[in-house]
């Protein structure tokens, strides 16, 4: 399996796995941002994971913006949008997939 194929597979997994848990919660609690943030900081472990993900997302955005000229605005916007709408688990492998395509 090529690295590009692996990154694409990880992108797909990075979409599916978070949404397996988020979609049912969201359907039970539509638009409940306060409830979401309350759960995301409900205990020290949840808070640690929340901060870890937020910082990782920020680093990924900065890293992606560094590839703006190499990959183009459209791909970078897709990476940033997928990072904040789905998660780092989707945005990072998507960026690596795009980079691998440029390096091939």
Q: Short description, anyone?
A:
This protein is an all-alpha fold. The chain has helices at residues 3-28, 33-40, 44-65, 68-71, 73-85, 88-103.
Write out key terms for the chains shown.
single chain, 6 helices, 104 residues
- Would you list the SSEs in sequence order as H and E? HHHHHH
Q: Roughly how many Å is the radius of gyration?
A: 15 Å
Percent in helix? over 70%
Count the domains.
1
Oligomer: single chain
The pLDDT mean sits at: 95
Q: Proportion of β residues?
A: under 5%
- What general outline do the C-alpha atoms trace? elongated
Q: Segments where pLDDT lies below 50 for 5+ residues?
A: none
Biggest sheet layout: none
Helical stretch tally: 6
Structural class: mainly alpha
Report the end-to-end length measured between terminal Cα atoms. Answer: 14 Å
| Total count of strands | 0
Folded structure, characterized:
This protein is an all-alpha fold and 104 residues long. The chain has one domain (3-24, 43-103). Helices cover 86% and strands 0% of the residues. The protein is built from six helices and no strands. The radius of gyration is 15 Å and the shape is elongated.
Write the layout of secondary structure elements.
Layout: H1 3-28, H2 33-40, H3 44-65, H4 68-71, H5 73-85, H6 88-103
């Amino acid at each position: 399996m090529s690295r590009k194929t692996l990154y694409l597979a990880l992108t797909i997994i990075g979409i599916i796995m978070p949404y397996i848990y988020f979609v049912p919660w969201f359907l039970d609690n539509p638009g409940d941002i306060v409830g979401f943030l309350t759960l995301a900081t409900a205990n020290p472990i949840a808070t640690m994971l929340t901060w870890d993900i937020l910082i990782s997302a920020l680093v990924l955005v900065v890293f992606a913006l560094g590839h703006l000229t190499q990959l183009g605005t459209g791909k970078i916007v897709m990476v940033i949008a997928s990072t904040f709408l789905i998660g780092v688990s989707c945005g990072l492998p998507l960026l690596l997939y795009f980079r691998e395509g440029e390096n091939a």
